[in-house]
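Q: Here's a chain of 289 amino acids. Please give me its 3D structure as tokens.
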Amino acid sequence: MADARRSRALGGLRPSGALLGVVPFFAYVTVFLLIPALVVVIGAFVSGGRPTLGNIRALGEPAVTSALWHSVVLSVVTAVVGAVLGAILAYAVSTARPNGVLKRFVTSLCGVLAQFGGVILAFAFLATFSAQGFLTRLLGVGGGGLWLYEWDKGLMLVYLYFQVPLMLIVFLPAVEGLRPQWREATETLGGSTALYWRKVAGPILLPSFIGALLLLFTNAFSAYATAAALVSQGAPLLPLQIGGTFTSEVVLGQEGVGKAMALAMVVVVAIVMTAYAVLDRRASKWLVR
């Protein structure tokens, strides 16, 4: 009777020891996500222990706006190219045998390559394409490999190395969600393959494609280690600008400006990921359950 009264007092919910299983997750989120976010938000409006808007106004400086523009361009280009190439690869993989060796190999490989970033990825490209890299010396190209250190050439290629595999992982479930009956119905009614993709498959896959595109944009926009390892001069990207405010030995006392730039990145990522969540929820109803 006492347990029943206690259950009614809790709205019909009984305390369960299973809730203890999520405590480590909430602790992790609090320590590594919520607390750093609060530090960034508060620090963006504080300087010398006093409230200020100077850090926010500093976002209008040419160096910051240029870095933001470069980051957006880099993220958009690599997201679009990676999404298109990844979507084509995802469709090719979806046509393979469901339990075949080829499909399992490609998906496993993409799962590894999508996480292969940072300094290790930068070193791999340096060892291959830099001025003293393996391919550069093998082909005998004098003075070659300098393009690798430019944000609009080398970084774009390096970023595509993990953008394309990530697109396959994210977009493949949507492609496999296309039911064969839809194509058969289109052919039965006299429709062509082009009509099927334009009127049936295309509209169904479009929300998933745009959602994956936004995810790729966020992935490139927030990347730091790879760019820091390749580009050491000028800090042309916003993540590098943020890192410079905390590590530079020339410009001191700019931590608040760095936190303001980080807050700007958080706002951009939050907007993009909200749009991704909306599109993902809309596209999930078409997936085969």
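Q: Can you summarize the key feature?
A: The longest helix spans residues 62-94.
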